[in-house]
Amino acid sequence: MPAGGWSEPALQPGHDPFQHLHDESYAAPFAVDRVGWRDMLSVAGRTLESLDGDWNFVLDLHDEGLRQRWYEDEPGPIAGWRVPRDYDDGDWQRTAVPSCWNVVRPEWTYFEGGAWYTRAFDFASGQPGERVFLRIGAANYEARVFLNGVFVGSHRGGSTPFFIELGPHLRQGQNRLQIHVDNRRRPERVPMNHTDWFNYGGIYREVGLLRLPPVFIRDFGAALVPGSAGKRVAVDVTLSDAVDGVAEVEIAGLAPLDLPVTAGLGRIEIDLAPELWSPARPRLYDVGVRFREDELRDRVGFREIAVAGQRILLNGEDIFLRGICVHEDDQALGKVTSEADIRRRFADAKALNANFLRLSHYPHHEMAARIADEEGLLLWQEVPVYWAIDFASPDTFSDADNQLREMIRRDRNRASVIIWGVGNENADTDARLAFMSGLAASCREMDATRLVSAACLINREHFRIEDRLSDALDIIGLNEYFGWYEPSLDGLRRLFANSDLDKPLIITETGADAVAGHDGAPGELFGETHQSQLYDRQLDLVESAPYVRGFCPWVLYDFRTERRQTGLQRGYNLKGLIAADKTTRKKAFATLSARYAELAQRQGET
Ligand code: GCB
Known about the structure:
The chain is of the alpha+beta class. The protein is 17% helix and 29% strand. This is Glycosyl hydrolase family 2.
């Protein structure tokens, strides 16, 4: 009997417990099986089995879990271990899904790195041949998913949903799901490491399971045929597999129709004149698509958005976009959003007499466009191709392009979304031109029913609105901060005098910081008076340029950003018309609201 009853296990030849200490390529095995836009499924009308709630959670500053393959360890009490570990899969620390870890505990506020989410769930299969998918609404930035100790897929991009088929790794009874989420900022990612918003980390949108039949409907689209004067509708369907058959489509009150499907794809155009969707009358139709035992149901509005010369036309009529930019940011919750939060945002936009929001600078929660469809608000949605992206890198392009296509796939049936934004304030280099023209081409390939734009800078050499990318755009977006970063508004006068455009332009940003409650003298930086006067002056000038067909200043609410560190800002961008509490309105709110009311009246809207 050995001393003290300690029985030694046999030596395991070939096993080197120190090997992982010297392996810096530890992340490579997880850069495969990356899911993207082609793996997306429409969830319209589907039921998700929620996996939200408290998950076991640890931060992993050194990537030990990937290096040591924590996920392969059979969970069990420490007393039963034969080899020491650094991870016990236990519930000693928990966090909610969805949440951003930065706002959960003060000591996690500035954490940037990997973190492990673990939970058990029970599963019992239903129909024979059933297929089960995990859907993650968004995880910032890279996610790697492990089921029962096996790596099942990864995803890049912090703001779009992704789907992983769980397939053969799913067990009857109890399963263990682990998700590694890494929010490190990196120069080659999208966005890169320099942004003017807070880099929240975590699984911050809903997580659930989807059970689908062996052949299911991956996606469908229903929209007006561009140029048909609202008299033709196109419906397309994509199935999970290359089978033939007929999909039944019903547009409530208008048309039941048969849609032939060949090798999993079908598209038809029919003469149909639905009542058109518009901000004044946001009419939505119930649309159902059925194939064998699967069905999708959605509420779809039919509208046409186009440009003609310098004008933007909605359903053939001239429209001026009275806009406001907004971030997805909350003092208490970070990037987590709720229906109530979105409804408040839209109520504030309506109180401003706005008809348009720029959802900056990344895809917002999908609920936003659904609610905008109901509320009759027009939207610009964009991908975070922000500032100094690594435009020369093909891998960076494929990351950006995938995020763009995921956003388009997700929201293609939302009438409210009229513009895809492919970038923000990027220097006009050859590499950027090729990269962003590529993104514009992807928009056109995926979606003929919306306009493409980007928030551009001015050409400083000629002091003109001139960007080589504009050939690839339908609308030119312009960010200008005359009256703030460039104190004289003469710059804007000169800019307009020097520019002549053959397409419409939207001022996609302008504004000034103001501390809520601090009036300040006219011209005093960070005072409410200056911010308010700036809005009036900007609008006086902007309304004089015929090609300016939209004004979308920066920004609805003050928001967290660690770049801003004066005693007034303290980690916040203060250009909001409303303070970060989302309640306290600054003077400029009333100013813009009055100006937008006048503009709406002139446009014949009440
Ligand atoms: C910009 C950026 C935006 C910033 C804003 C500012 O041009 O597009 O993300 O937050 O200016 O406040 O400087």
